[in-house]
Each structure stands twice: as structure tokens, then as C-alpha cells.
Design brief:
about 60 residues, about 95% helix, mainly alpha
């Protein structure tokens, strides 16, 4: 049993698997960033609007 496992490990192309893992990780991170931006866009707009209003109020004084 051990020789079979050892042989399979020696035949496995870990560089190819690592490349696929890295590509998958980058895709997941980008997708997660896009989804979180889409979900938080109302809060982001509200924060920007509040900052602009604060600047306008500060300029009036």
C-alpha cells in the first residue's frame, strides 16, 4: 500500500495543482470583493453623502 501511495505522489504534478489553486483563490477574492462592494454600495453612498454635507456645513461657518 505504501509503495502505491509513494508512487502516486511522485507522479503528481504539484506545480500544476498549485497554479490552479492560485487562480481559483484569485477568482474567489475578486468575486468576493465585487459582491461585497455591490452589497455595501448603499452604505458607501450614504457615507460619501454625509462627508460632502459635513464639508459644505464646515465651509458655511
Amino acid at each position: 500500500m505504501m509503495p502505491k501511495i509513494h508512487e502516486k505522489m511522485m507522479q503528481t504534478d504539484f506545480a500544476k495543482k498549485l497554479k490552479k489553486l492560485i487562480i481559483l483563490t484569485v477568482c474567489v477574492v475578486l468575486l468576493g470583493g465585487g459582491v461585497s462592494t455591490a452589497m455595501l454600495s448603499p452604505q458607501i453612498r450614504e457615507a460619501v453623502s454625509g462627508a460632502r454635507q459635513w464639508e459644505q456645513d464646515r465651509e458655511k461657518v
